[in-house]
Structure formats: C-alpha cells, structure tokens
Automatic annotation (TrEMBL):
It is a multi-pass membrane protein. This is Co/Zn/Cd efflux system component. The chain crosses the membrane at residues 26-48, 60-78, 85-105, 117-137, 157-174, 180-198. It is found in: Membrane. Keywords: Ion transport, Membrane, Transmembrane, Transmembrane helix, Transport, Zinc, Zinc transport. PANTHER family: CATION EFFLUX PROTEIN/ ZINC TRANSPORTER, RE54080P-RELATED. GO terms for cellular component: plasma membrane. Pfam families: Cation_efflux. The keyword Transmembrane helix applies. InterPro entries: Cation_efflux_TM (IPR058533), Cation_efflux_TMD_sf (IPR027469), CDF/SLC30A (IPR050681).
C-alpha cells in the first residue's frame, strides 16, 4: 500500500508559498481526467450493478472537486491551505462511510454485478489514475493540501487494481461477494487517507496560530 508514502515526514512549509506553474497545470489536467472518468464510470457502474464501480466513480468525482479546491487555494496562506486539507479529509472520511453503507445494502439485496463491464472500465480507470499519479508523484511531500492530493490519487490507483480483482472474482465465482469486499477495502483506504491528512493539517494550523 505504498508504506513509504504513508510514513514520510515532509518539512514544514512556509506560511506563504508561491505555487509552481507546472503544479497548477498538473492539477488542471488531473481535474479533467477525473471528471471524465466519473461520467464514464457512474454510467457503467449503474448498468453493471457494481458497488465497487459506483464507489470508484464517486471517488473520481470527489477527486475532481478536490483538485478544483486545491487550485483555488494555491498561493494562499498556510492557514487557508490547511483548512482546505481538513475539508478534504472530512470528505474522504464521508466517502468511506458511504461506501461501507452501500456495500451492506447490496449484500442485503443480494444483487450480482456484471464482471465484463467491471473489467474493462476498471482497466481504463487504472490507466487514467496511473497517469495522474505519475504527474503528481514529484509533489507528494508538500504541505498537507498537496499531500492530500497525492494520497487521493494513490488510493484511486490501488482501488482500480482492486476493482479488476473483484471482476475476476465475480466472473470466477458468480457471486457478488468479491465486488462487496473490494468496496469495503476502498472505504478503508479513504478512511486511512483522511486519518493521515488530518494530523498534518492540524499541525499546520497550530503553526499559524503560534506565529
């Protein structure tokens, strides 16, 4: 799960940071890629009745909104960027809880997803997220706002791999449980990422208050 990324210790950023033009361009590109994949994946998830695809589509939408928020606060004070990171941590936690609830609902309903749609859409989503992750990798150790952007993208790529495994599991077993299990894993990734971003954002807010 990329433990080296989870446990890195970035240096504290200055109270005021000037955004890199290259980083701004990367965020715009990431925003449009994620929004396009949201539109594609939510339609495919509904047709395939796949909880993991629906979860991944909403994750794409949430990331597009997060990239937009990151663009908004670039160049603002550390306080504003840390507040944005707190908001994104809360949104990641809410996403994780929603996915867990949705998985329980589908388990109770007993519906079975369509594995072929899960497979090709999951592969396309993985390609999109690996491209974005490659663009953002150089910025993974910035402030809490930049770190939250990297963690969202990393989690997306891991989630896409899990969707592909779920598609194989559903195809081989004819059961919905692989799809539901992957949805639960994706929820756990979102909750873990929120837990990582929250303390750093709080430290940055305390840094501002002590200045």
């Amino acid at each position: 799960m990329g433990a080296h990324c989870c446990h890195s210790h970035p240096q504290e950023p200055a109270v005021k940071a000037q955004p890199s033009p290259a980083y701004r361009r990367v965020l715009w590109l990431a925003l449009w890629i994620n929004f396009a994949m949201f539109a594609l994946e939510i339609g495919a998830g509904l047709r395939a009745e796949s909880v993991s695809l629906l979860a991944d589509s909403l994750d794409f939408f949430g990331d597009a909104a997060n990239y937009a928020l990151s663009l908004l606060v670039l160049g603002m004070s550390l306080q504003r960027r840390a507040q944005a990171a707190l908001f994104k941590a809360a949104s990641m936690a809410a996403f994780g809880l929603w996915v867990l609830g949705s998985a329980l609902w589908h388990a109770w309903q007993g519906s079975s997803p369509e594995p072929l749609t899960m497979g090709w859409v999951g592969a396309l989503a993985l390609l999109a997220n690996l491209s974005v992750a490659g663009l953002l990798y150089a910025y993974r150790d910035g402030d809490s706002n930049m770190r939250s952007v990297w963690l969202c993208t990393r989690n997306d790529a891991l989630g896409n791999l899990a969707v592909l495994l779920a598609a194989l599991g559903v195809f081989g077993s004819g059961s919905a449980w692989p799809d539901l299990a992957v949805a639960a894993v994706m929820a756990g990734l979102a909750l873990a990422a929120a837990w990582q971003v929250l303390p750093q954002a709080r430290r940055e807010l305390r840094q501002v208050q002590a200045a």
